[in-house]
Amino acid sequence: MRQRVPARWLNRTVVGIGLASLFSDWSHEIATVAMPAFLATMGVAAAWLGLIEGVSDGLSSFAKMASGYYTDRFRRRKPIAVAGYVVTALGTAAFGLASAAWHVLLARSVAWLGRGVRTPVRKALLAAAVTPDTYGRAFGFERMMDTLGAILGPASAMFLLAAFDHHYPTLFAWTLVPGLLAAALIALAVVEKERRPVEHISFGDSLRALPPPFRKFLLAVGLFGAGDFSHTLLILLAAQRLAPALGAAGAASMAAALYLLHNALYSAFAFVAGWLADRFDKRRLLAGGYALAAVMALAIIALPPGAWALVVVFALGGIYVAIEETLEDSLCAELVDEAHHGMAFGALATVNGAGDFLSSAVVGLLWTVSGTTAAFGYSAILFVAGAYLVLLTKPRSVLQVPADLT
After folding, report:
1. Average pLDDT value for residue range 192-208
2. Whose CA is closest to 63, among 38, 81, 37, 89?
């Protein structure tokens, strides 16, 4: 009798999706870094940047929910992902055609619509390529590769700006190279296995069909997300606290270096978190990540202002985000059966998107009105509440299957 060879979790689909995440993030991070200075050349106010980001993120969240709902009803998911990557690449490169701020708003909105469409589809394809006992490593690998792109993007932007003497249309045109490579990797490297589409039911019925443990998990994610502010606020914190000692220019440079440390630790710990997720209780690990976020928020309040205290804050920030994003994805995949993964990942992404918008606005307002103690104390309370609720989420016993991947 022929012995069955165990399949590897690091297969061509996982590698293809990981590389696509790296190249796509590389592409749009170049544009994101250059966008504020590009808008400044048009003489527009800072409010335009906020409007562009807010509208784009809102459209992206809507697209994630809609894409998650519809992708479960198609026999093949991969063409939707390829289309999403192509639209993101073309929308990002279209920045170079802009001559007014509203042109940038339109291009960014198109790019983020594509990004929203592809996100739940990519995650569903990734989950389908491995078995439940290796979800952690697969999602950890994808998060690691995505963050490497976030490191390469700003570095490439600085190089391209210098090489082309701040000629922005040329810089934005170059984003097509990694952006279209990402689409090609999804098209050529990802192997989509045969699946039976779910029956067509209404959007509301689809939401209600998701299992109760998953809905409790979403509530925990939402509670945590309501306090999980954008880490660009950490850059502002560093710039303000270091300015008296280093001056404005020196503080800005040090803040950028601290953010690079943040992203490097995020990339390094994403796979570590995934490896641990395949060996220990995902709920406890995710709760630990949420608790680590609370420690970071309390460190901002309690530690004396200074460079070493900020190193601790940025390091904790990078590590907890790695745990949070990797474990949320892998726990989502575990709590919902594979046929409904699109809807589940769409719902998760939408809750996270709403939390990102709410938390940054509230924390920024509290910081302005009442100071850092109120702002980050608010975050710490919600981080702890999210951690507690995650621990109350019961795993699906149906997925406690023997491992068949190595």
Report:
1. 73
2. 81
Q: What is the pLDDT of residue 396?
A: 57
Report pLDDT for 398.
40
Query: How far apart (Å, rounded) are the C-alpha atoms in residues 260 and 151?
Result: 7
The helix/strand/coil state of 329 is helix
Tell me the C-alpha to C-alpha distance, in Å, between residue 263 and each of 151, 266, 268, 346: 7, 5, 9, 25
**pLDDT single digits (tens) 345-359:** 888 888 887 887 778
All domains of the chain in start order, with CATH: 12-194 (1.20.1250.20), 213-396 (1.20.1250.20)
Question: Which residues have a Cβ under 8 Å from the Cβ of 369 and sit 6 or more positions away?
Answer: none
Burial state string for 18-55 with b = 16 or more CB within 10 A and e = fewer than 16: bbbbbbbbbbbbbbbbbbeebbeeeebeeebbeebbee
- Give me the count of residues in the chain: 406
Q: How far apart are CA 126 and CA 134, in angstroms?
A: 11
> What whole-number distance in Å separates Cα of residue 346 and Cα of residue 339?
13
Distance of CA 52 to the CA centre of its chain: 18
Tell me the residue type at 79. Answer: P
pLDDT at 4: 42
User: 189-201 burial by CB neighbour count: b if 16+ within 10 A, else e?
Assistant: bbebeebeebeee
